[in-house]
Amino acid sequence: SASSESSSFPTFPPGFYFGAATASYQIEGGHDEGGRGPSIWDTYCREPGRVANGATGDVACDHYHRYREDVALLRDLGVDSYRFSVAWPRIQPTGSGKANEEGLDFYDRLVDELLAAGIAPAATLYHWDLPQALEDLGGWRVRGTAERFAEYAALVVDRLGDRVTRWMTLNEPFCSAFVGYAIGRHAPGAREGRGALAAAHHLLVGHGLAVRALRAAGADEVGIVLNPDLLLPASGSEADLGAVRRAETLHNAVWLDPLFAGRYPEHEAETWGELADGSWRLDGDLEIIGAPLDFLGINYYRPITVRDVPLRDPDPATRTAVDIRVEETWRDDVRHTTMGWPVVPETFTRLLTELTERYPTVPPLVITENGSAEADEVAADGQVHDADRVDYLRDHLHALAAAIEAGVEVQGYYVWSLMDNFEWAFGYDKRFGIVRVDYDTLERLPKDSYRWYRDMIANHKTQEIS
Ligand code: GBH
């Protein structure tokens, strides 16, 4: 019945907002239209063996042409806000110089369409699609990219700043630095030590310089999106607790310490040894990086289990920055999504409470991504009955409500993702959407989870006014 259904909905404080999130390369397509230049993902996807089934984002969900239909889906969902990302190579095809007006025009139209539907646009400036021309000059390994990023931010806020009220500089710099330059599972596919550590630093400097540019243009709310990880020791042994400390440095402290504690990561010598000589740092960088923020975006999906292992590569000349005597595994005593990720909602509560305890100066949080990849077959009745995703979302929203109850300040929640899309190295094999995309016809089909989320939002709005 309706009442037993609504009693299963978590409750949130008045003013709490709900949204859905996407990213440019994962949904837009139109890769050679509107003057767009190539990004590192266009290059990476074309290298054999990098992406499952040789998939690319050339067409993706064709959102570049279908954005009106997608905004209508958001409107019917009843969300307060939509988080999208701006593709840097649409704005600056070679990563520097004056703006490509056609590129800005696309986001201009999208923003107007959102506002007409009563939805607040929330723009991420960098969700991993670096102009290839900048990678050719060294990418995030070099400081010049951080400076170019701030110039690009200024161009975007100049055009959209009168209508976009919420800005995010970087999405998950962990992935840009360590998955891109050390693990090699994301573009540009490098496997380095110092290069990856320098990239981490230059991403932070780029963030800080972009914050300055956004503030100078009068941007309302400015933040960054991190994916802090909840790290569980495989055992209570001293060795495994040491592994947790090193993984904590790699995943979390490398970002959170300079952003919110005015220092470089505490345990970097233990974690990286001689790789961590900090030669890429300049005086004054910590002030740039530590510019005050209005919110911290958090992407949360699952906890990681870590255990102590020997170094894979004893030679510091070739060792990568993720070779820190840690093996990462998944808990196996719970359900796993099709990503193989364990479903553990209570660690979401723990992550948020521990984070705000450890960093008392952290600004209010916004959950900028949370969701699950499921099998999502179309049933005989033509619908997608994604009960596992509904369970995932309900349980994680309850875990979020529990964190708020415990005193953590959280302003909003965006589900990942509005629709199935290009899941990076996994191509189109993994479906995270609350709307199904048929990749032959590009038709959109709302799943059961879309209707559940819509009803949950509607329930929240009724509570707010009663
Ligand atoms: C987010 O990353 C992204 O922001 C979003 O674009 C993505 O679609 C979504 O999650 C779902 O994955 O293969 O060992 O190198 C989530 C966290 C951490 C997931 C790094 C991919 C790669 C590990 N990401 N991980 S590895």
Automatic annotation (TrEMBL):
Substrates-to-products reaction catalysed: Hydrolysis of terminal, non-reducing beta-D-glucosyl residues with release of beta-D-glucose
Molecular function GO terms recorded: beta-glucosidase activity
InterPro entries reported for this sequence: GH, GH_1_N_CS, Glyco_hydro_1, Glyco_hydro_1_beta-glucosidase
Keywords, in A-Z order: Carbohydrate metabolism, Cellulose degradation, Glycosidase, Hydrolase, Polysaccharide degradation
Enzyme Commission number(s) of this protein: 3.2.1.21
Keyword Hydrolase in record: yes
Enzyme category, top tier: hydrolase
Keyword Hydrolase: yes
One Pfam assignment: Glyco_hydro_1
Cross-referenced SUPFAM superfamilies: (Trans)glycosidases
NCBIfam families registered for this protein in UniProt: BGL (TIGR03356)
Family, similarity comment: Belongs to the glycosyl hydrolase 1 family.
Name listed for the protein in its UniProt record: Beta-glucosidase
Source organism per UniProt: Streptomyces millisiae
